Amino acid sequence: MNRRTFLHASAFAAGAAALPPALPAATPSGGPAATAWENEELRRLGYWDIHAHVGTPGPTPAKRMEALVRIADRVGVERLCICMSPPWSYEPTPEQFRRSNDDVLAILKEWSSRAFGLVYLNPKHTRESLDELERCVADGPMVGIKLWVGSRANAPELDPILRRARELDALILQHTWIKQRGQGNLPHESTPMELAELSARHPGLPLVCGHTGGGDWALGIRAIRARPELHADLGGGDPVYGQVEMAVRELGASRVLYGSDVNGRSFASQLGRVLGADISVADKKLILRENLRRLLQPALRRKGIVT
Amino acid sequence: MHRRHFLTRAAGLAALPLAAVPASAAAVPGLIDTNVSLGEWPARPSWARRPADLVARLRRHGVTSAWTGDLDSILQTDTAGANARLAAACAQEGAGVLVPFGTINPTLPDWEEDVRRCREVHRMPGVRLHPNYHGYGLDDARFLRLLELATRFGLLVQIAVTIEDDRSQNPALRAAPVQPAPLAESVERVPGARVMLLNGTTRLYGSAIPLVQRLNRSGVRFEIATLEGVAGIAGLLQKVPDLHLCFGSHTPYFYFEAALLKLAESDLTPAQLAAIRHGHAHSALSLS
């Protein structure tokens, strides 16, 4: 399938697939957790999730996504940025990341109404990563890039990938974590501080700081504060009080994104931190939907996807 | 009662009325949060500096009873004083919702007296342990003695596996999570022991299912505050259908809404939902 026919097929699939309910199906009459949503407007918003992995059981990638969508519907998640189909490898070979991306492509054929694809790359294999970027984003339906723990975010091999991403309007999600103040990180696992270095080399290019340092989010938020292109993905850690409030205070709500990191995490714990935060409803709407929608618009426009 | 008599007549005291438990908790199905705290963790901000703040949010979300420990007391040696303040705060400002669970540290001299006061003076239905911050394991002889004493008194023993993710602890406050495996043998050696694990984390629920099954057979209760994974409750109940799983939020350290939404994320039967919301908690205190 070439790019044109692929995009056509995706558009058809988008029309054929069930429309997202944008309303938690499990709570038609109040339900077990109705009060978690502050008001009906927030409950019906339809959340956009920057960080999801399709690891639910199923015989095919599309069936696995179907299972995940059923659960997403229960808590009001409308769109998911999906990436890194399991099994995972810390330092994937080109063959491994291509196979992972094949699964995401298969999902997008049937679920483009609910999912956006982020192509998984390992910058250590720079040439192959650039080729995969062409296959999945330039010539395929994906709208962004996922970088995990194969290479540190400040490494020079990321530069050609970011330059091409800018040309393609592809949004980049870079995993970061700070374990035991960095002493416990994996050998090539990035920190928000390293991502800030990368951002300084590519001013004006929006980047998403995956997990924003994880459990040590207070360090992560400080590390990205001075780089306005850097956006905080809140997902993946425990729902510790104070994270959302600090992110909004220090970065502004327009730089903060809801992400779940399912399947490892629950939608609930990651949504709960936003819904329960002591911030305005307007800021919650930005975090839960509008910011990601805005960041993806250039890539979606380029592909003719209307949301 | 004099403390000397207390220690010898503990079995009789199990029948003491629990003044701190609202009478309505047994009669009215509601939402029992088994994992709530007053106080502040030193490394994090808190939205619940006053008991009234905590009660207001819990009530807004339908919580009828909140089993409440004290974060301040974990790092204090005067746990008796902390427990007295906790009991007073729950009685005076708990609005019938907050049920105090005193902190017991069995490495302190004369910790048995703290147990006595929790039961006899404060009429608490249970106590809360923090073995990783107090420096003992669940195979420690002192823990076994505590379990025996608590059982004679009819106290529920809550064991916090952790307070916070050990990957992100302040370097000055590092404590590895409690290893739950020795609990299986300890609880089997004390017939009638009532035990609940708090903040079990995915380490327990994800990779130690045989241990969870064994503990469950001994009547150990679990709660959902740190249960993760998409539709995590349903997934866990698929592996252990008869699990004594209770609702717990670990609030105010965690956002309360995170736990509440887990009830919606999993597709649960009305019976499963009722058991998690209040059934297993009620039976843990023998209130049902």
What would your notes on this structure say?
- The complex is a heterodimer of chains A (307) and B (288).
- Chain A is of the alpha/beta class and 307 residues long.
- Chain A has one domain: Alpha-Beta Barrel (TIM Barrel).
- Helices cover 43% and strands 12% of the residues of chain A.
- Chain A has 11 helices and 8 strands.
- Chain A has helices spanning 3-16, 40-43, 61-75, 94-111, 126-138, 159-168, 192-201, 217-224, 243-251, 267-275, 281-302; strands at residues 47-52, 77-82, 115-121, 144-147, 171-175, 207-210, 230-233, 256-257.
- An 8-stranded parallel beta sheet of chain A has the order 1-2-3-4-5-6-7-8, with helices on both faces.
- In chain A, strand 6 (207-210), helix 8 (217-224) and strand 7 (230-233) form a beta-alpha-beta unit.
- In chain A, helix 1 crosses helix 4 (94-111), helix 3 (61-75) packs across helix 4 (94-111) and helix 8 (217-224) runs parallel beside helix 9 (243-251).
- Chain A is globular.
- In chain A, 54% of the residues are buried.
- The model of chain A is unreliable at 1-20 and 25-29 (pLDDT under 50).
- Chain B is an alpha/beta fold and 288 residues long.
- Chain B has one domain (29-165, 174-284): Metal-dependent hydrolases (TIM Barrel).
- Chain B is 42% helix and 14% strand.
- In chain B, strands 1-2-3-4-5-6 form a 6-stranded parallel beta sheet, sandwiched between helices.
- Chain B is globular.
- Chain B starts with a helix and ends with a helix.
- The model of chain B is unreliable at 6-15 and 19-28 (pLDDT under 50).
- Classes of the chains: A alpha/beta (307), B alpha/beta (288).
- At the A-B interface, helix 3 and helix 10 of A face helix 13 of B.
